[in-house]
Amino acid sequence: MNRGIEHLSQYITPTTAGIIWLTDEALNYNSPGVYEFNYLLDGMLIKSISQELSHEKKPNRSIFFLGDSFGKPLFIGHVVVSKKEDMKIMHNHFKVAADFIEKHSTIYIFNRAQNTANVNLLKELAHKYKDYKFENLNI
């Protein structure tokens, strides 16, 4: 097992409901977290990236996956953040997920976007969505 996957498995528990993943660029095979999150999604992430690359489409700036972990829904919402308005997409992902996940679940923030440097995401999300616990994910 990859060390990143081993490390990630410490965070994914029955109370984990999702991961909000922020980057500066569209996903590719070398994006931080791709290997680990692909494992959580049973290969669907790499399949999605592969389909984008093979069709030479404009890369997705946002993608939402809904999987399963410990018999409960687990979402991963990715957003390319290039301007402040892109943060609305992050909130849209969470609103979609809220219909599936249990209250008081943990949502991890995997932030690799330099464009969010002046934003306290944990504080913002905790203030807006009081029924959930938000934590940084460092893998």
Please specify the SSE layout and strand pairing:
Layout: H1 3-9, E1 16-23, H2 34-40, H3 44-54, E2 62-69, E3 72-80, H4 87-98, E4 106-112, H5 121-128, E5 133-136
Parallel strand pairs: 1-3, 1-4, 4-5
Antiparallel strand pairs: 2-3
- What amount of the residues lies in strands? 25-35%
Alpha-carbon distance between the two ends: 14 Å
**Percent helix range:** 25-40%
Overall geometry comes to globular
- Would you identify the regions where 5 or more consecutive residues have pLDDT less than 50? none
SS-derived structural category: alpha/beta
Number of helices: 5
Order of helices and strands: HEHHEEHEHE
- Specify the biggest β-sheet: 5 strands, mixed
Number of separate domains? 1
Mean pLDDT, all residues? 90
Find the count of extended strands (DSSP E, 2+ residues).
Answer: 5
Strand order of the largest sheet: 2-3-1-4-5
Radius of gyration over alpha carbons?
A: 14 Å
What does this molecule look like?
There is one protein chain. This protein has one domain (about 5-10, about 15-135). Helices cover about 30% and strands about 25% of the residues. A hairpin with a 2-residue loop joins strand 2 (about 60-70) and strand 3 (about 70-80). The protein has a five-stranded mixed sheet, covered by helices on one side. The chain is of the alpha/beta class and about 140 residues long.
Concise structural overview:
The chain has one domain (3-8, 17-136). Helix content is 32%, strand content 26%.
Which key features would you list for this structure?
single chain, 139 residues, alpha/beta, 32% helix, globular
